[in-house]
Amino acid sequence: MDYCVRQMEQSILKASKTFPVVMVCGQRQTGKSTMLKHLSESDRKFVSFDDAKVRMLARNDPELFFETYGNKLFIEEFQRVPSILMEIKKIVDERGENGMFWLSGSQKFVMMKNVSESLAGRVAVFDMLPLSTGEINGDIKCPFVPEIESLKEKKNRKRTLREVFEDIFKGGLPKIALNPDVDRDIYYSSYMNTYIERDISSLEQVGKLDEFRVFVTYMAANTAQELKYDSISNVVGVSAPTIKEWVSMLERSGIIYILRPYSSNLKRILVKTPKCYFLDTGLAAYLTSWPNAETLMNGNASGAFFETYVVGEILKSYSNEGKKANLYYYRDIDKKEIDLLMIGPDSIYPIEIKMGKCPSVPSKNFNVLNKFEKEVKPGLVICMADELFPIDKNNWYCPVGLI
Known about the structure:
- With 403 residues, this protein is an alpha/beta fold.
- It has 2 domains: 9-127, 3-Layer(aba) Sandwich (Rossmann fold), CATH 3.40.50.300; 133-402, no CATH class.
- The chain contains 17 helices and 15 strands.
- It has helices spanning 9-18, 32-39, 52-60, 62-69, 84-95, 108-118, 133-136, 148-152, 161-170, 174-177, 184-204, 209-221, 229-236, 240-252, 281-287, 293-298, 302-319, and strands at residues 21-25, 45-48, 73-76, 101-105, 123-127, 225-226, 256-259, 275-278, 327-331, 337-343, 347-353, 375-376, 379-383, 389-392, 395-399.
- Strands 9, 10, 11, 12, 13, 14 and 15 form a 7-stranded mixed sheet that branches. A 5-stranded parallel sheet has the order 2-3-4-1-5, sandwiched between helices. Strands 6-8-7 form a 3-stranded antiparallel sheet.
- The model has no long low-confidence stretch (mean pLDDT 89).
């Protein structure tokens, strides 16, 4: 399998010149180690805390660990020895050099808690999501900006709905996305076993592994839906507080993204329930037993998977630049809903996501945003349109190939 250039690469190299520590976190198998090894200088050593001997040395004698491996080092799965961060802080403060340590791991919030306590101001943090469509096709794009003039200048990569669903079914984990010879079912089965054995059993002591597998499958089947803990609890057969803990595990493992409702100062008329999106559509399709892209495209989950794909592509365009996408959704007590809101300092960009070429959209829903003290920008309907095209003076069809 040839190396796939990642959009994040230049941001990583730039950060390594200005910070002593660079950290890349994200879902297992997204290519963190592959990218960092590819970018590593010849004098940067590599160690993994998945190796029990290395892990024991780092935990029991951190000074000897760094004497053995040096101070220009890439440490994989570093969150397995969180105490190492204090020794890294000591070395960084003594030497004051940039680019000394590269860290990677698959438990984001566990890492961030430890990092914020010991390496504040000394570390650049990146989230690596699965491959974007642009990365897979060698067509790397800038972060998605929903400004009409900006979109007019972008190249639209036209695709059929079938081609889009081939991408959705395949997903963005590199071994599957870049290698058609890999047995998909065996790969995802092994992936889930590794995830549960390493990230769940060892770190969280879930206890009810059979129920946890049912839970993950339920979450995949309900991607792009509101997150209702009591309903999930009834299906899975564990308590709602346990479901909340499990949702948090999936989020910090990089498996799901939680999209929160926009509230501003109007909480009394807006819903408070977040929505949940699987960050790899291929894994979600596997867990829900869709046999191929065509069946998924024609099935009752097609709209939810299409929406999940669009949200994921927007998120990737930002995380690959080391930035955060300021995304929300809107729903009020009158059941008026807008799929996505991108919030700027003084503006709101409303976005609907639909599968058709010229879908009928109640764009008047965008008018509900006038109650907020921000300028409401022209709305977008991201869909299968062939080109950027006005619906009316305030709203546009936006081809999925422009995200």
